[in-house]
Amino acid sequence: MRYDNLELRGHTLVHLLREVEAFVVVPRVYQESARELDRHYLQPGYPSSFAEGYPAELSDEATAERWVKHGEDRIALVEERIS
């Protein structure tokens, strides 16, 4: 089955994964990490979204490493599906 020229748009991974599920099975672990990543999207992208503070106050190295791992896992899933 081919899905050439399929384009999905959006700003939340949760929403994008729901759209992708129409075509492939998305493992539960990806859905869970998508929710975590979505919760942390707003502050780094819009530093003035809170009345005070800045993004670095709300994160740490371990959290950032976890986010990077989630992202790498998603890229691996996509590359596996399109190869």
Explain what this protein looks like in three dimensions.
The protein is mainly α and 83 residues long. It has one domain (13-82). It is built from 4 helices and no strands. The protein has helices at 13-20, 28-39, 42-45, 61-82. α2 packs across α4. The radius of gyration is 15 Å and the shape is elongated. The mean pLDDT is 78.
Considering the chains and any ligands shown, give keywords for the structure.
0% strand; 55% helix; 83 residues; mainly alpha
Summarize the structure.
The chain has 83 residues and is an all-alpha fold. Helices cover 55% and strands 0% of the residues.
Largest sheet: none
Low-confidence stretches: none
The quaternary organization reads as single chain
Q: Count of helical segments?
A: 4
Give the total of beta strands.
0
Gap between N and C termini: 12 Å
How many structural domains?
A: 1
Strand content: under 5%
H/E series: HHHH
| SS content category | mainly alpha
The geometry reads as: elongated
Portion in helices: 55-70%
Averaged pLDDT: 78
Which value, in Å, is the CA radius of gyration? 15 Å
Please write out the topology.
Layout: H1 13-20, H2 28-39, H3 42-45, H4 61-82
Helix pairs in contact: 2-4
